[in-house]
Amino acid sequence: MISRFGLLKRTPNLPPEDFDRHWRTTHGPLAAKLPGLRAYHQHLVVNKEQFGIDHARGPWDLDGFSELHFDDLPSMMSAVSSPHFAAALQDEPEFVKDVHLVACEKHVVVPVELGKGPFVKRMTMLKRLPGISADRFRQEWLTVHASWVRQWPNVLGYVQNLVIDRYHGDRSESASYEDVPVDGIVEFWFRDRQQAAELYASEIVARTQQHALVFLDEITPFFVETRQIV
Questions:
Q1: Domains contained in the chain, number
Q2: Number of other residues whose CB lies within 10 A of the CB of residue 132
Q3: I want to staple 52 with a disulfide (CB 3.0 to 4.6 A). Which of 85, 92, 139, 200 is the partner?
């Protein structure tokens, strides 16, 4: 399965509540018609605090993440060439200033088990250090770093989305790394912010963040509220 994330910045002077409403009620139904679409989530950014992260924050200032699931890259590209995509693309200037896109492999490290209680979700964008190759990043993140995170207590879910292609402007031709400098997107679920704060003050997290210094240049987290459209 491929996850296609849109990194969304709202149109200047558009109030956040109007951005949210248009995305949910107008654009969402248009994108939901894409052929081959297996699932579609909208992740609305509600907080941009660095929260528990010692790394430098990247320049991204987002208002939302769209997430569309397809069976594979050919299915995703077929959807992009459809008339339904043309209608969704035409609507974008009504609520977003710019859209960068990444296609990702999804890797579940800690299965999501939310139970019946409340929860908070954080999505984090990762950029590798200069001199770290894409293959080295993949090994450090998917294998070594994941092994550390599996030891964390009280985590409701942890999913790694490894970037395998990038797009900006043209939705069918790959963009350069310089245009879309993102290597991965983390999805992290906690019961609440207090429990997350206690976790980030623990020794196991400190040791995990020491490993992050080996391969990560920027860590840019966002707390989000997620709704499923499809």
A1: 1
A2: 17
A3: 200
* pTM for the predicted model, two decimal places: 0.96
* CA neighbours closer than 13 Å in the CB half-sphere of residue 205: 14
Chain-centre distance for alpha carbon 100: 11
Condensed to tens digits (0 to 9), the pLDDT of residues 38-96 reads 999 999 999 999 988 889 999 999 999 999 999 999 999 999 999 999 999 999 999 99
Q: Name the H helices within 36-178.
A: 73-80, 83-91, 134-139, 146-149
Who contacts 12 (Cβ-Cβ below 8 Å, separation ≥6)? 97
Tallying the residues shown for the chain, one arrives at: 230
Domain that holds residue 224: 2-228
| Burial (0-12, 13-18, 19+ Cβ within 10 Å), 11 | middle
Tokens of 61: 């200032």
∠ CA 39-222-170, rounded to 5°: 55
